[in-house]
Amino acid sequence: MVTETLRSWAPGRVNLIGDHTDYAGGLVLPMAINLGTTVTMQPGGNTLHLRSARRQSLHLDLPLGGVLAEDLTTLEPAWGRFVAAAALELASTVGGSGEVTTTLPVGAGLSSSSSLELAVALALGFDGSPLELARFGQRAEQVASGVPSGIMDQLTIAAGVAGHALLIDCATERHRAVRMPDSVEVWVLHSGVPRRLADSAYAERRRATEVAARLVGPLAEASLDDIEAIDDPVLVRRARHVRTECDRVRVAAAALEADDPTEVGQLMLQSHASLRDDFNVSVPELDHLVLELSSRGDVFGARLTGAGFGGCVVVLARPGTDLSTVRSDAWLVQAGDGARLL
Length: 342
Ligand code: GLA
Prior knowledge:
Elements: E1 6-17, E2 27-43, E3 47-52, E4 58-61, H1 79-89, E5 96-102, H2 112-123, H3 130-145, H4 152-159, E6 164-169, E7 174-179, E8 185-190, H5 198-216, H6 224-228, H7 233-257, H8 261-277, H9 284-294, E9 299-304, E10 312-317, E11 330-333, E12 340-341
Helix pairs in contact: 1-2, 1-3, 2-3, 3-4, 5-7, 7-8
This protein binds alpha-D-galactopyranose.
């Protein structure tokens, strides 16, 4: 029997504002982008063989009964860990042979790994709602990376809407599309610093927000007075970031809808300062880049985006601005639709 060739697509994402709030039940305002991963696959058999133009090919004996022969965290080539985690979570026993291509920079903080997981899941026959796909992807990402990440990346990738950002309440996992006005363009610039140390520090930051929440309640709505009264200055700063960042996200979504990019830009700069000073997830290269960009007349605002510790800044700029002269690793991105079979 000749089976049909399947093609799936999953975008990457960039977060406009609201970082290190998703796992604390807070608000985020990311968008799926027009860069992403395509998987082309001929289904069949019980092994998975995927070629990559950029990387070593992957050959995987599929996990019969949900158990992989290899230890996932040491699987080589490393990109196969994300593929294997997707196959494992899906309890897939039907494999295939095909190719993976991506237009995303890998490891830059634009969710290349989640994009890969969701594209593989769709090619292997995942059938469910965008929220189910997102929850699936979050589990796969946690298994593959060992990092206790939140749901922002996967929900954005699964539920993205062209021309819109998504305002997500991570406590309820409900979201709504917020139109991107014609008065702005979104750029992503790499700081040149790889996201080293991000994994262990990420887990440590998440733990701190959980300890603080046990003292003052859910941080997204805790009283700032209660937060300031916590008897540990580090916990105060961590909790204050989450609480104030959620307010900034709410105001930024309203400002985007009111076509007020100046206000959104100011909130992005405040977000960066809070991530730098209260959450301590910035690095000097990111700070310099944000400072340089914010002094330009054609930029409304800029901030580190994603987990931090290196990686990229997101920039809200006037249409027609060219930021490729600032960094060679610069991408003008559009808000795109979510993951799907093509
Ligand atoms: C990473 C995680 C997300 C989120 C961001 C920080 O991208 O995967 O869940 O926590 O960091 O906002």
